[in-house]
Amino acid sequence: MSKYTASEVIQLPRFTAVGAMALGEQLFTAAKPAKKQLVKGVARVLATLASRHDDLASALRDQVSLSEGGEASEDAVQCDRVLDNCWSGLHDFLTAYTKLPPGAPEAAEASSLKAAIFTGGLKFLQLTYVLEWSESELRIQRIRKGGLDARIEALGGKRFLSVLEAAHIAYGKALGVTAPAATAAAAPPSVRDALAAFTEALRAYVIKVMGSVEPDEPETQELADRLLAPLASWSVGSSGRGAPRKNDKPEGDTAAPAPPVVPLQPGAPTAAPAPADS
Predict the structure, then answer these.
(1) Are 164 and 80 contained in the same domain?
(2) Residue ranges making up the domain that contains 154
(3) How does residue 13 score in pLDDT terms, banded at 50, 70 and 90?
(4) CA–CA dist 76, 91 (Å, integer)
(5) Other CB atoms closer than 10 Å to residue 74's CB: what's the count?
(6) Integer Cα distance of 139 and 18 in angstroms
(7) Which pLDDT tens digit goes with each residue over 108-161?
(8) Quick one: which of 211, 231, 208, 171 has its CA closest to 28?
(9) CA quadruple 245, 246, 247, 253: dihedral sign
């Protein structure tokens, strides 16, 4: 009888270490409200996934250089400062509204937006470059997908959003996260190994979640859909780097995307391979 490993049964989209960090955070956020509903097997592999995620974060923190010189490029440093100022500016803008007299609707709205966007305040701006980009990406996706942008604009913050998104894009390019950096070096072995371990743990998690679905219990399918929603909305762009979809469709991709998670049964047709890195 043939034996199948997780890597043969489940195909995942390709993503960089930074992309994996962002995806992991989204998966944990999706699982948090449902922790009491998780069966033991799912809870166990989720804990393993969290551990591998921590290992990947540590490997990224230990990565000494973002360029061949062992130091961040001047462009990256400047872009980091600009992005820090943009996030701080949006934070201050919302904070100013919270100081309105009690009962003012704008004060309550600003407090709600701050809680949704700035969980933990501005501490993420003190992280290392790639981890800060990951946290910035998560917050921008939360703003877009949660309709928070319209609410911020209603308070008069449209300009803050436009400069913030531009600064985030420039920061990603300077780091080589969203575009190849001119002096970017290959990820060190520790990061590659940590990413591989995280990916295998993710496959195991997907298998357990899908295996927990009972055909005659629709609530189990609903739970699985919620747990895997971040992965289902992940795509691979032209650079081969995974990124959350914008408006449920990868930018620049006119074809319908292949499902990111493809379970195979013994004897079933082989799924199309994931797109290779360009």
Answers:
(1) yes
(2) 74-175
(3) confident
(4) 22
(5) 10
(6) 14
(7) 999 999 999 998 899 989 887 877 888 898 899 889 988 999 999 999 999 999
(8) 231
(9) negative
Q: What is the pTM of this model?
A: 0.54
Q: Where are the alpha helices (DSSP H) in the chain?
A: 6-9, 17-31, 40-62, 74-98, 105-117, 129-145, 148-154, 158-175, 189-211, 218-232
Phi first, then psi: give them for residue 104, nearest 5 degrees: -70, 125
User: Cα–Cα distance between 22 and 201 in angstroms, integer?
Assistant: 15
Helix or strand or coil: residue 246?
A: strand
Residue type, 158: K
Position 12: which residue type? Answer: L
d(CA 149, CA 183): 35
Instruction: Convert the pLDDT of each residue in 224-263 to its tens digit.
Output: 999 998 888 764 333 334 444 433 333 333 333 333 343 3
Could you give the C-alpha distances from 74 to 77, 78, 125, 183, 185, in angstroms and in order?
Answer: 5, 6, 18, 12, 16
Q: Is residue 180 part of a domain?
A: no
Same domain, 29 and 91: no
* φ/ψ of residue 246, rounded to 5: -105, 125
Q: Is residue 273 part of a domain?
A: no
